[in-house]
Amino acid sequence: MGTAEPLSQAGYAEAVKAPGRKRKNKGETNLAGYLFISPWLLGFFLLTLWPIAQSFYLSFTDYSLLEAPVWTGTSNYANIFSNDATFTKSLSVTFVFVLISVPLKLFFSLMVAIALSRNIRGMNLYRTAIYFPSLIGGSIAVAALWRNMFGLDGYVNQVLAWFGIQGVGWITNPDTSLGTLILLNTWQFGSTMVIFLAGLKQIPQELYESASVDGAGRFRKFVRITLPMLSPVMFFNLVLGVIGSFQTFTSAFIITKGGPINSTYVYALFLYDKAFKHYQMGYASALAWILLGIVAALTVLNFLASRYWVFYESDGGKAK
Amino acid sequence: MRKKRSSVLALTGLTLLLAATACSNSGGGNGNGNGNDGGSGNVAGANEGGETKAADPITLGMMWWGTDERHEATKNALALYAKQNAGVAFKPEFMAWDAYWQKLPTLAASKTIPDVLQMDAAYIQEYVARGQLEDLSDIDLSGIVDPNVVENLKIGGKLYGIPLSQNAQGIAFNKAELEQYGIALPQKNWTYDEYFQWARDARAKLPEGKYPIGDSTDWGGYNMYQTSMGKDPVMADGGKKFTLDKDLFMTYYKTYEEFRKAKIVPPAEKGAAFLENDPQADPMASGVVMTRGATTGSVSALEQLMPGKVGVVNMPTGPSGGGWAQSTIFLSVSANSKHKDEAKRFLRWFITDKEAGKTLGLTRGIPINPDIYKDLEPTLAEKDKLGKEIYDLSVEKALPFYSAAAGFSEWVDTYNKEMQAVTYGQQSIEDAYDKINKMGTELAAKAGS
Amino acid sequence: MTTLRGKLSNHLFLTVFSLLMLYPVIWWVGASLKKTVELGLPTIWPSTPMWENYSKGWHFSGDYTFAHFFGNTLLMELGNVAGGVFTAALVAYGFSRLQFKLRAFWFLILLLTMMLPGQVTVVPQYILFNKLGWVDSYVPLVLPHFFGGGAFFVFLLVQFIRGIPRDLDEAAKIDGTSVYGIFFRIILPLIKPALVTVAIFTFIWSWDDFFAQVLYISSVDKFTVGLALRMFIDQFDIQWGQLLAMSLLSITPSVIIFLFAQKYFVEGIATTGLKG
């Protein structure tokens, strides 16, 4: 086991095809499987399915919320694709946001998780302190704080001034506002970090011990043990990071309101405005389903790529 | 096998049990939902004190936004009504402004807007146009509200909201600092030309980093300019008529362009960071800008941030007047209400009853009913007096309050964003005009068809 | 093995980093004690602390104190966490270890439900809950947690369970343990760190979920802390001192829970007797 074979076997698809090794009585495993997933299945049919189906239907209507929906066929979709400059703008803002913030947050939170996974006295206090920014989430205090830091006379510019650099109004400059939001998003890396932390703790210590016996150094252990053993969790954080970032809303909503000049007008905020501010729920529903299509496509790509780098202890690594 | 089955049962049982506890957990109170029978809390309780029990008691739902002071006063007023009218109870629901307008569309969609709801001039057109509000023209307001006021508030010839208080738009200024720098204080009924000249003069006397006036990017500011110069409002006739006067538009924004260069208004980056009534980011309270727009209803918040330093003046005027002075906050009745008559009776009582007036005090501004206001006048606090002052200064020259027509909320956003692009120097005034004008004309054509 | 110098530099680094992350708390504590007029000043600490921001904020509502709202929220959280953790584990075990028809299909559906922005399902959902008579109760807030706790947590636990070697199951199977026995006796104990993660996130995220709470709760006696906090904010008028004071208090349960739940991260699974 000392030399785990990472990166080779077992993608998701394979796992789906052949999870159980012994073919047992089919009906029985079917029953057990459905029993276990029944809470979700029940909830899906009772609470989730109808609203989702409804929103799909509404995407083909003109619906102000205040009046009954009127069927308009595919005209919402046609309008979105043919003459809505804001759609293009908000989609590109969102892509930039996802492309930068997802990898940045993954990297940063993994590094911090590793630093915090050691058993040092007082570690629980450090962890709590470092998790703190993620606790305050979308609170009003965050908006005030962020203005304090990145305003024209904020702390960041005061520090820059020591080095003779004239700062800008980071939040209110259209060139830097999105970057500031990405930074805020990265600063709230706590959840991703905690998931990494739990993943790190799940790696059996014996693997490291036997690797030490084999004379492996720190870096080698990281590459040969930590990364492959952590890959399912990393995969999770990546997939969910992409899904979540495409729907990023709160920070833009409370800090920039999408401005200045739409520079932080992320897709979910655009959609929210359409639905609840401009009373165009039908149009907003169409926007939502387009987003679903984009995110689903990217997630499928993620799953396809995962078979080349995600390593599942339960599927591979061991001889049959 | 036997063992297996029993654990299957155990598993299912456990899930059900958990689900069941969830329900009982949560239904803690009277979980009978939105029904009008869920008499809630202390207000309905007051009903029990009534002497007779009417044959079929009804519960009126009522929803409003506001501060805690307003909530307490309103609850007390409702208790008072319930006491005076046996058989009527209330189900009050109150929240802050943002939450209110987030929630209301969803209530409309599920047809569960309460019988009585507070309305704002900025939103009423949208809700009227979509048939959500009941016509209240048959409520007799003679002797309570000035007939001209009532006439002004009508939408398509009908009254959809009972006005509650007086409001007006004016300008607040930093009296303390203007005096310190030897700048003349703004005078009542100044014209736009005087306003602009005042700003130029003040610039010369102010130190760097301080600005006499703020930039103007929103449609409301320009609309007041256009109407005060004698032209039609941007949107008229429920959005069917759209007027964006190119000459006035160019003059107005060219002036601000000049001001931006001359540092009479703050640079775009600074301007975008302002957040009114925020202790750190308010343009005036932060000491950066010497003036800003303020209304009767909002000036008290500013006064709390910079006590004793605020002075007020009316909006700049043109040949046909300037600013506005009228009620912007109303009580309406939902078109889906099952108790419309009772709701209307209650609405009339709400602005007529002396006792109610005393209970409600100034929590919704200066009461529209002069008799009630007379009783309250001696209780006016310093912050309320400023609001009253704006109203008194504005009323002589006031034009009507123009809110965005139904279906124009997105145009309003577009206007503000296009003009923001102008302030940031990313687009010419002319280009912005073309885009805004095109979109508005199209919307008006749609509304007219 | 670690040298004293290494230890010291570790602590130094962690302390500096923690302080950097804690800057907002320090700012927040100071601001919560300020008078409104002082909030505009760049100083961190007020000239004279206004403790009454706390006492007034606590008693702001005529009928209830904040203790009542904390009680409401904790009650709701109890349901959320209990329901979420247990059912998410069940569902995740089903998806990761058992073979059944259409498994891949259902898993795909599960993921898809996460990708549709909630803004467009909230209205139909409200109409549904309203028809069921659940508006102005905690049911719409709590019940969804009992159906697998949401796709995020199911997927998270699936990934953790798939990281556990199958030998353990196999060995148990040979000993005649049923799939249910394997779940309760082998899988559940092994994914404890992940379950604690689910519990913490459920707690923190539902504490924060203002949009759902404002929609479904309308009576003051059922208000959550999040809803009570919004009472300090109106269109123009914001009670800054009380707002900052009470919102600072409002995050303390989350902080305490995070602080105490940590030992479960620290205690890895190495001790549970895996053979190398």
From TrEMBL, chain A:
Domain of life per record: Bacteria
CDD domains: TM_PBP2
Membrane topology: Multi-pass membrane protein
Keyword Transcription regulation (UniProt): no
ABC transmembrane type-1 domain mapped to chain residues: 91-302
Subcellular location field: Cell membrane
Keyword annotations from UniProtKB, A to Z: Cell membrane, Membrane, Transmembrane, Transmembrane helix, Transport
Name of a matching Pfam family: BPD_transp_1
Parts forming coiled coils: none
Transmembrane segment boundaries: 31-53, 91-116, 128-146, 178-200, 221-243, 249-272, 284-305
Cell membrane among keywords: yes
Family: Belongs to the binding-protein-dependent transport system permease family.
Descriptive protein name: ABC transporter permease subunit
Originating organism: Paenibacillus glycinis
Taxonomic path: Bacteria, Bacillati, Bacillota, Bacilli, Bacillales
From TrEMBL, chain B:
Keywords linked to the UniProt accession: Signal
Record carries keyword Signal: yes
Signal peptide residue numbers: 1-22
Region (Disordered): 33-52
Pfam family, one: SBP_bac_1
InterPro entries in alphabetical order: Bact_solute-bd_prot1, SBP
Comp. bias (Gly residues): 33-42
Annotated coiled-coil segments of the chain: none
Keyword Ligase: no
Protein name as it appears in the record: Extracellular solute-binding protein
Naturally occurring in which organism (per UniProt): Paenibacillus glycinis
Native organism taxonomy: Bacteria, Bacillati, Bacillota, Bacilli, Bacillales
From TrEMBL, chain C:
One Pfam family matching this protein: BPD_transp_1
Keywords linked to the UniProt accession: Cell membrane, Membrane, Transmembrane, Transmembrane helix, Transport
Topology with respect to the bilayer: Multi-pass membrane protein
Main location: membrane
Transmembrane stretches, start-end: 12-30, 74-93, 105-129, 141-161, 182-204, 240-261
Recorded superkingdom: Bacteria
UniProt keyword Cell inner membrane, yes or no: no
Subcellular location: Cell membrane
ABC transmembrane type-1 domain ranges (all copies): 70-261
Keyword Membrane: yes
PANTHER family, per the entry: ABC TRANSPORTER PERMEASE PROTEIN MG189-RELATED-RELATED (PTHR43744), ABC TRANSPORTER PERMEASE PROTEIN YESQ-RELATED (PTHR43744:SF6)
Family: Belongs to the binding-protein-dependent transport system permease family.
Name of protein: ABC transporter permease subunit
Species the sequence originates in: Paenibacillus glycinis
